[in-house]
Amino acid sequence: MIEFKDVCKTYENGTEALSHVSFKIEKGEFVFIVGPSGSGKSTLAKLLMYEEQATSGDIRINDFHVTELAKRDVPYLRRSMGVVFQDFRLLQDRTVYDNIMFAMQVVGATKKEIRRRIPTVLSAVGLTHKARSYPDQLSGGEQQRVSLARALANNPPLLIADEPTANLNPSTALEIVEILEQINDRGTTVIMATHAKEIVNRFQKRVLTISDGRLVRDCEKGGYDDGQE
Question: How far apart, in whole angstroms, are the C-alpha atoms of residue 109 and residue 104?
Fold first, then answer.
């Protein structure tokens, strides 16, 4: 489903963020991407989301050959994935329901699809009772749940979470990852970039460890390797 072959990323200022990274992620996997700040894991996440493009190498996501993607096909790639960020990125002047509706309208969902889908995703994240609330009426954990619901609204086969627990307290962070695990159990591929060792060690999923721009460890059902920092 996802394949990186010898991928390198060098920014215009000369910083080499990734160097010759190769891996495969199959449909339905749950994978943590870990590493210290500045290791390259956020760049890797941005390449997955097509916020950045590789300097060299080959990237394939689902049926898309990303490194040869035409501009007209970028929206179709992005519709095949849901994305969750650490800073929530909710529209503050819209309710929870309307935030999710907007994400569906952008990709051309019908009113019938919107009415059917939003209660489903709100139920999945435990926020049915908050549909008419505004973001500033929610806790940080609730806002991140809305972000999850929004990412799931268009039923994507792939969910990318970039440091989704960074701004949350430990118990709330645990709840968010438990929801991600439930989403994965239903068949969605989940990739989560994080530096939270306790989360990684608790859930025992596959772990890709990035250090100084290189993939230094690929461990099935592993923990966070302290020796990499």
Answer: 5
